[in-house]
Amino acid sequence: MHINLTLVIQMAVFAVLIWFTMKFVWPMVLGPMQERERRIAQGLAAAGKGEEELRQAREGAESILREARERAGVIVDQAQRSANEILEQARSTATQEGQRLLAAAQQQIGLDAARAKEQLRQQVGSIAVAAAAKLLEREIDARAHEALLNEFAAQL
Amino acid sequence: MAATQPQIGEYILHHLTFLTNKPQTSLVNFTVIDYDTVFFSVLLAVLFAGSFYLVARKSAAAANSVPRGFQSFVEMLVDWVDSQVKDVFHGTNQLIAPLALTIFCWVYLFNFMDLLPVDLLPDVAGAVGLAHLKVVPSTDLNGTFGLSLTVFILMIYYSIKVKGPLGFLGELTLQPFRTKNIFVQIPLSIVNFVLESVTLIARPVSLALRLFGNLFAGEMIFVLLALLTLVHSYAGLESLSGWGMALMQAVLTFAWEVFHLLIITIQAFIFMVLTIVYLAMAHEHH
Q: So what's the pLDDT on residue A64?
């Protein structure tokens, strides 16, 4: 147990060692550590922000999709309605056309019947004249009795 | 036991003698140098500073890389010391944290030398012609006082720098006893100065002696355990009691090594924490 020059040397070595650590070790280790800490914090914050943005984007996409679906529904409705209208219109047009055709046909039938009646009447007149001539055994002057015959035919 | 008293005394004395340029007879003699203490403390300083500097340079050069291996260890240590300093000291001082790291690592390495087999390096030194070799710098009072006196100088320096010479003087003379009457204060100040000076000087002395005492005692236990097989040497292995002694030494030395591993860490930690506390106190105003 003694104190000697070693004490002074130890103090000098210690002082140099403190200086060296302070100058070349401490800041060069702690600096990058703090820098890394900052970057990690930044990265985590960016990840949180990205997640939030993703959530918002998803919400936006969903609302756009919902809107599109609604609009498609409206369009389909409209299409159905106009199809129904067209169908309805076509049906009424066809009904009118049918009635018109029916009316025309009935008219034609009336005309034909009248014509046939007319012919029948004329033929009946002729037959009646022939029958009368046979009965009288003489020829009736058609021209002289035309008025009589026509009156007769009209009575049939 | 076949060991004789002179042999045992000689062996212990051999382990307590430093490698010096000349024998020291008086307590204080500033012409004597302990070569072994200086050599090992400088070697350990280079080991500490060199390995940490390599990590620091690598870390600063590639700030984006993921730290692994020794770099992680260094960063963990730096972070831990930084938090220790921040717990105690709240001002801004660029010196305290690096100082604390230096103290912890250097003192730990000093102390770790105690875990090497107690005869290993002295026998190697003996083989190359050196009479004595003490490998643990913290079992040298010069080593521990070298640390604590440097800390003491820093304490005084920061006290004066922060509080001014008058503030520091006031701290030494105006507490714990204080009165408004100036004529009563003068004798009280003398009492205060004596008390405060003792408190102040007790700090480096206790720092140095605590470390020295723990490590000296630890080393002494290893030396005493080595005595179990000292005289038998290899011849002791021819008898059953010789084997018993060897086994006992192995078991006890192992147990003490494990326990000592705790002690050397705690001593390095205590030295560091007290240094931080003392320097923080030097920054505080009363």
A: 96
Q: Which of A40-54, B71-85, B182-196 has the lowest mean pLDDT?
A: B182-196
For residue B227, give how far its alpha carbon lies from the nearest alpha carbon of chain A (Å). Answer: 22
Q: Provide the terminal-to-terminal Cα distance of chain B, rounded to the nearest Å.
A: 62
Catalytic residues of B: 206, 210, 214
Largest CA distance in chain B: 83
HSE-up (13 A, CA, CB side) for residue B60:
14
CA-wise closest residue to B150 among A7, A56, A72: A7
Q: Is B146 on the interface with A (CB under 8 A)?
A: yes
> Reduced to 3 states, what is the DSSP secondary structure of residue A3?
strand
Q: Do residues B253 and B107 touch, judged by C-beta distance below 8 A?
A: no
- In sequence order, what are the residues at sequence separation of 6 or more whose Cβ sits closer than 8 angstroms to the Cβ of residue A153? A121, A122, A124, A125
In terms of C-beta distances under 8 Å and separation of at least 24 residues, what long-range contacts does B58-65 make, across chains too? B59/A28, B59/A29, B59/A32, B59/A33, B60/A28, B60/A31, B60/A32, B63/A32, B63/A35, B63/A36
Residues of chain A positioned with their CB less than 8 A from the CB of B45: 13, 16-17
Tokens read off for A46 = 């960016």
Chain B positions touching A32 (Cβ under 8 A) are: 59-60, 63
pTM for the full model?
0.75
Contact B52 A17 (CB under 8 A): no
The ipTM is 0.88
B74 and A29 within 8 Å at the Cβ level: the answer is yes
- Interchain pair B78, A33: CB under 8 A: yes
Per DSSP, B66 falls in state: P
d(CA B12, CA B163): 49
Is A15 within 8 Å of B102 when comparing Cβ atoms? no
The answer, yes or no, to whether residue A55 has pLDDT greater than 50, is yes
Nearest to A18 among B99, B137, B141 (CB): B99
Phi, psi of B34 (to 5 degrees): -90, 100
Cα distances from B53 to residues B71, B94, B110, B115, B128, in angstroms, run: 11, 18, 19, 25, 33
